[in-house]
Give the backbone structure.
Amino acid sequence: MIHPYRQFSIKGAIWYQGESNADRAYQYRVLFPAMIKDWRQKWAQGDFPFYFVQLANYMQIDDTPSASAWAELREAQQKTLALPNTGMATTIDIGDAKDIHPKNKQEVGRRLALIALAKTYGQKINYAGPVYQFNKIEGKKMLLTFGNSENGIKTADDAAPTGFAIAGADQKFYWAKAIIRGNQIVVSSDQVANPVAVRYAWGNNPVCNLVSNDGLPASPFRTDTWQGITFGKK
């Protein structure tokens, strides 16, 4: 369907979004970058801007931390940022539990516009939420350090951070207590004496509230590389 449009010059592309691939999220790690590279090759305009929307929150809220194909698809999308001249609008906070097509497209468009204004048009503005960088284990706690946090990190509702889960070597996750400390978040649980992994907003419809000081949400992430439920599905 794209082939007839190759005759036109373009400035860039916006992509929305990937729900139908959720059950094959590991495959999407290959398919999505391959598509972007193919479009760029077909148009022969170099690495033109390619900005995309990460899956929004959807479906029932989990009572306990659970495996999620949608979370794995979001991770595949995030990994695609390794390609040059790409950008991702995180929408984990503006979805709809009962509607796969959430209504608030104005905010989706605004967040995409921030990316374009910053990365394509050179405006000195923030266009993304806090970005997880690395962790350090200190006894029963895990310290998570975030990038893109120069203007500070906070919660959207000024309450304690939510959406964090922590696990030991048994890979069993429990909801965790989280405290903001500068550009770090300290995560712990009385049920996990020796933590090895933390996940944030890892679910179909996670309850999460971590944002930058200008209100842009942190993207879901995990510190572990344990095999997901969509691994090997084609």
Notes: The first strand starts at residue 13 and ends at 15. Residues 131-216 form one domain. The chain has two domains: 3-119, 131-216. The chain has three helices and 13 strands.
